[in-house]
Each structure stands twice: as C-alpha cells, then as structure tokens.
Amino acid sequence: MEKGKGRRLLLFATQTLCVFFLFHLLYIELITFKATPSQQMKITGRQILSELKGDHRSNAVEKDNQHQNLQNLLAKLVGGEDQTKLDSTGFACDNTSWSLHCVAKNPVKINMRTMYVHLHPSQINPTSVANSKPNSKPPTTTIVRPYAMQENPYVMNDITPVTITTTPPSPACDHYHRHPAVIFSSGGYTGNVFHEFNENLIPLFITSRLFNSRVHFVVVDHKPSFVEKYRRVFSRLSDHEIINPGVDSNVHCFPGAVIGLKFHKFLGVNTSDNPQNYYSMTDFRSFIRQTYKLRTQSVFHTSNPPTLLLISRLTTRKFLNQEEMVKMMEQLGFRVIIASSAKDMSDVEKFSRVVNSCSVMVGAHGAGLANEIFLPDGAVMVQVRPLGFQWDVDAFYSEPGPGMGLKYLEYMMEPDESSLADVYGLDHPVLQDTASVAAKGGYDAARKMYLDKQDLRLNLDRFKETLIQAIRFVRPDTNVANV
C-alpha cells in the first residue's frame, strides 16, 4: 500500500509540474505575441494599399507640377495682352512686324495629313459649339504659315499653311506625347546659310531652348538636306526624332503646341523681347560652339600670325584681282585661307572649325558672311559693300556683328572698282546715280544690276588701310607703322 501511494504522489507532482510549465509557456507567448501568417498578410496588404495610394497621390502631384511648369514655359513665349489672352483662353498668337507664332498651352491634336491643329475642348468658347444659341459666335480658326519672316513676299506663298481650329469634333489620337510640339517650315530660303540661320536656327533657338530639349519638332515643307545639314542643332534642341508630315499621316496628341517661330532681328536676339530675358546672342553662339565642339572662344587664343579667311565668290560679286589681294594680305602678316567651294562650306561641322580658327573674315556682301557666327569673340568681320547696293544692308551684318562680340569693318566700293564701269562707262547713271535704278525698277531691278551683274576690282591701296585696322583689333601689339 505504501509503495502504491508513493507512486500516485510522484505522478501527481509530475502532472502539476507539467501544467505549471505549460502555463509558463502560454504566458511567454502572450507577452511576446506575434501575428499569424494570415494576420501578417492582412497587415502587409493594408500597408501596400496605403503606399499605393500614397504613390498615386505623389504621381498625380508630380503630373500636376509638370503640367503647370509646361504651361508656365509656354506662357513665356507671348507677352502683354497676348499673355492675358493665353491665361484666360489657353490660346493666343503673338504677331510682330516680322513674325507670327501661336501658342496653345492646353492639349492639342494635330492631324499630320491635313495639318489641322485641334484645340482642347477647354479652349473652345462655350457659345461656339454646335448647339449654341442663334446669336453665338462661330468656332474660331487661325491659319499660320510657320515661317519666321512673315513679311517676305518671295517665300510666304510657298509655305504650307497650318490651320488652328476650335471646331469639334476632333479626330482620335494615334500617338500620345508627353512633351509639346513646335511646328515650323524648312521651306523658304533654306540652302542659303544666311537665311538658314536668320529665319530658322536662331528663331528655333529663341522659341524652343527654354523647354530644355523636351519638345517635338514638326517640320512642314520638310527638306532632308536641310535637316541633315543641321542635325546636330536639332538633336540638341530636341530629344525626339523630327516628325515629317510629308510621310506621317497620323494624328498626334501633345500637351501643348507652338505654331511658328519667334523672330527678333537679322542674325540677332533681343534680350528684352526674349522669354523672360532667357537668352541673348552670346548664349546662341555658346550653344553653337558646344554643338560643333568649337574650341577657340577668343581671338587672342588664335594662331600667330593671325589667320584671315577670304570668302571667295565664284559667280557674281567675284574679286577680279583676288591674287593681288591675297599677296597683299600675306605681306601684312596674315596667313590666308580661301573659301570658295560651296560643297566645302556646306559641311557645317568641318567649315565651322575652319572659321573658328580665324581672326579675320573678309568677303563681299552675301550669304557667306553669315559664317561670322562661328568666329571667336573679338574677331573682325570685313564686309566689302558692292556699288549700288549700299542700303538696307546694315541690318544684315554691321548691326549683328557687335551683338556677337565681333568687330565690324566695311569697305565701300567706288565706281571705278566696279566691273559695271567696263560696261556702262564711269559717267553713266548706273554708276553715278545708283539710287535711280531702284527708283525706276524697285528692289528687283537694283538686285539684278548690282548683285547679279557686278564683279569687284578693289583698290589695293585703299583696301590696305581697312586690313591694317583689322590687324590693330586682333593683334594690338603689332607694329603696323612699317607694313
């Protein structure tokens, strides 16, 4: 009996100890409770949902900020009453004495086949829709020929018109873009370096540079040779491939658009007329140097002896005594480079480096002088003015030069230096009363006579004085007393 009793006591003690141990474990589990996998999943799911909502709100805020920033940038392209109109309606046109460009700061649909720009419904006057009242205003339509020089009658009729309309319904989008469109024409006088810079590249820089390459170019009258020639410029102003409506008949949708380019003045930029004083001609020249990797910024970093670039024309306005001119230039201490091949000069990448290495550039009035854009700061551009065509050319070269940081000199032709003296004689009104030609026949008659029919035979003694002035500019320490 005693032995059985002892066993029952031992078993009871063991059970009691096990129960105590189990309670202890349960207590620890309660104190250090962790969620079950299903509970953890529910908690994590709520966290992910919360984070997704947060990301969605963040993306929405970011998109709103981007849209607001885009609208602010587009608004900088117009001013005064036009900016007020843009703010209130989302669409306005800036029409100056030379150029016309229109800005839509809300989404647009562009039908590349018809070149119709359909404005966003928010830009439609509520009284202009189909179900409007009898006395309501009709939908608005604006036609723009997107060429910078609007008052040039010789080219405007050949520029493809772009129609901007609030007429519903608009077509469905084939392509959606995040960045705005800039529509311009590569027609007109492209192929002529002066007009390429004057009416295309500088206005395009003024219009699109503030978008920091986040812009699409839509080029009507697309000229492959022009686009290829300046592909480096286009690729730096836009991150996207150029859209050519000639081969693209789709409907493209953009968050905004600029139709036409801002033009300020010949080969120049009016800082005060630029978007909020963003850019100057100095900025454009820096942009060009970076684009073509032009290393020489100042004329004082050029070679010694200084290099003179002679723009030699092979058709009209030829230098008839060019060999003697070059010999005199070399005697004055210049190393002379003669540029006469249109093919060589059309290779912008190579020729820009040649120009950038020179201290002085000399040429008769003509497109080739626009290459002064590539000259280093402080260099000298010498324009030889042909007889009889000495009006309205200040705006072409003499005025832009100082705005580029260049020195400008000119050599005015005398009647006996013109090949027209051999044809008409020195006493003829064509040489002695050049204004009479324009008075009778207008600009076309003057151009035909003095630009298309005239060659030049410079008086070397007179021209020498102009070159000595150029030496003093680029090499102030040179003793010119004995040259």
From TrEMBL:
One GO cellular component term of this record is:
Golgi membrane
The membrane topology of this protein is: Single-pass type II membrane protein
Q: Which UniProt keywords apply?
A: Glycoprotein, Glycosyltransferase, Membrane, Transferase, Transmembrane, Transmembrane helix
Q: Which GO terms describe its molecular function?
A: pentosyltransferase activity
Chain ranges passing through the membrane: 9-28
The record's InterPro entries line, in alphabetical order, gives:
Glyco_transf_61_cat, Glycosyltransferase_61
Major place of residence: Golgi
Q: Which domain of life is it from?
A: Eukaryota
Domain annotation Glycosyltransferase 61 catalytic: ranges: 286-382
Q: Any keyword Membrane?
A: yes
* Localization in the cell: Golgi apparatus membrane
Identify this protein by name: Glycosyltransferase 61 catalytic domain-containing protein
Identify the species of origin.
Answer: Deinandra increscens subsp. villosa
